[in-house]
Specification:
The chain is mainly α. It has one domain. Helix 5 runs parallel beside helix 8 and helix 10 runs antiparallel to helix 11. The radius of gyration is 27 Å and the shape is globular. It starts with 5 loop residues before the first helix and ends with a helix. The C terminus is likely disordered.
Length: about 475
């Protein structure tokens, strides 16, 4: 973290996460392709419930990122004991979050689904799929938290294998549960959900075993654990904004779906778009996963030069990869949509939507890089403000464009939001970076001076030389 060349370090730490994210993106596509061949209504059903799935994932991201930053900063300061207690409190928070999701699984699923479709078959598929995913969400919440804990120590390989285990298990089981191969029943969307949660539990078990039984810089089973309000608050201070950053797009999608639900194929197209764009966005998130612990460590140690080099290289790679995504989405969107083959109208609407929304990819790379930098410095609120502003632009834009242009113009809401947000927050983020690092360097300098004063010996008080005093003749004697 402190000595390896920045470019080599970032690539070394990011490649496993990027690879695992690409596997996750492949899983998303394969899962949807299986369902597309099962029934068009299955695609519509999973598109309806997709935002709530993202909300669950955002909870895991928030807890994981908050724990990751706290541990990385503690390790950068040389405080391993504090890092271990932060890891324990992070896992405790994931367990508490699961209990909340479990309660919601039995209360909100049916009302939510029926608000977006009146078709009984589509509604039944959506309710079954979402109920299973929420009821057994323990696997994904614990896996995401433990993977972030490992990443905070510089261990990127185990999280990569964790993602591989979950995704490959899911991909293998999908056709058996969806289509009813061999002794397995034909379950459709419900089968896809079962395959998903089984893969998540396998991934959780592997990640926990690696964290507990392999030598790590943090110890999850360290004695004396108790839920600490101070540790939980420090995790939430960074994690809650990260959670909201991930959750806000899901809330926005719920609202946008409400605007476009009367347009033919619109919700399904948006759902397919989010699956396809995961091939572009998830590798960027893998890159930032590798970059965040490096940024946090060097911020904690006050290494401004290495922090700046890491950010610049990370942002350059993100923009370059997003530019490749723009080329793909602009040149072959019709072929991408035809993989889900639902007729000419579906492909036509989807092709148009892909070309319009992908205009904002490069600006999105800049925003993602900036939010990662802010999170690594503990400025979670700034990151939240960037994401919140983006969603606040999307919602009214989508409403007005859907009202007056329908599907012709509604997709422009996304590039409009990215342009407005980047124009406002790029200069603000530069100012925050300079101010925050100046404050951090001043704090570290004060700590060094304090430690130096404590270690330096106190100056000895000179005692009077009684021998010389006694030998010196007094004025009285001389007189």
């Amino acid at each position: 973290m402190a000595t390896m060349p920045v470019k080599k370090l970032l690539i070394t730490m990011s490649l496993p996460a990027i690879f695992s994210m690409l596997v996750q993106a492949i899983y998303n596509i394969v899962d949807s392709l299986y369902l597309a061949h099962f029934s068009y209504k299955a695609i519509e059903a999973t598109s309806i419930v997709f935002p709530l799935q993202m909300l669950i994932i955002s909870v895991g991201i928030g807890i994981g990122v908050g724990t990751n930053v706290y541990i990385s900063k503690s390790l950068g300061e040389g405080k391993r004991g504090r890092a271990s207690f932060a890891a324990q409190n992070g896992v405790f928070m994931a367990l508490a979050a699961y209990l909340v999701v479990l309660i919601l699984a039995f209360t909100i699923v049916k009302p939510f689904v029926h608000a977006y479709t009146k078709d009984p078959e589509t509604a039944d598929m959506a309710v079954s799929y979402l109920s299973i995913c929420m009821t057994f969400s323990l696997g994904v919440l614990i896996e995401m938290t433990t993977s972030k804990i490992l990443q905070s120590t510089g261990n990127m390989r185990v999280p990569m294998f964790t993602q591989l285990i979950g995704a490959i298990t899911n991909i293998i089981l999908d056709p058996f549960f969806i289509f009813g191969i061999g002794v397995f029943p034909r379950l459709g969307a419900k089968g896809a959900a079962i395959a998903t949660v089984i893969g998540q539990f396998f991934a959780m078990i592997f990640s926990l075993c690696m964290l507990i039984f392999k030598k790590q810089d943090v110890h999850l089973l360290r004695k004396g654990f108790y839920p600490s309000p101070s540790y939980i608050w420090r995790i939430l201070k960074v994690g809650l904004p990260s959670m909201l950053i991930s959750a806000l797009p899901a809330f926005t999608t719920i609202i946008v779906n409400n605007f476009i639900k009367t347009f033919p194929y619109a919700i399904s197209v948006l759902g397919v778009y989010f699956k396809l764009q995961s091939f572009v966005f998830l590798p960027i998130f893998g890159l930032t996963q590798g970059g965040m612990p490096i940024l946090s460590y060097n911020y904690g140690s006050g290494s401004r030069a290495r922090f700046s080099q890491t950010f610049r290289f990370m942002a350059t790679l993100a923009v370059g990869f997003m530019a490749l995504g723009v080329v793909i989405f602009q040149s072959i969107p019709n072929y991408l949509m035809m993989m889900f083959g639902h007729g000419e109208d579906f492909v036509r609407v989807g092709t148009y939507a892909m070309r319009i929304i992908s205009i904002c990819f490069i600006l999105a790379a800049v925003s993602i890089s900036i939010t990662t930098m802010m999170q690594s410095m503990g400025r979670g609120f700034t990151s939240l403000l960037i994401t919140l502003s983006r969603q606040l632009v999307i919602i009214p834009s989508a409403y007005l464009l859907a009202k007056y242009t329908q599907t012709t113009g509604v997709w422009f809401a996304y590039p409009i939001a990215e342009f407005v947000t980047s124009s406002i927050f790029l200069p603000i983020s530069i100012h925050v970076y300079k101010k925050e690092f100046a404050r951090r360097l001043a704090f570290l300098e004060a700590q060094k001076q304090k430690e130096a004063e404590e270690l330096s010996p106190a100056p000895a008080t000179e005692a009077p030389n009684t021998e010389l005093t006694a030998q010196a003749p007094s004025n009285e004697t001389n007189a």
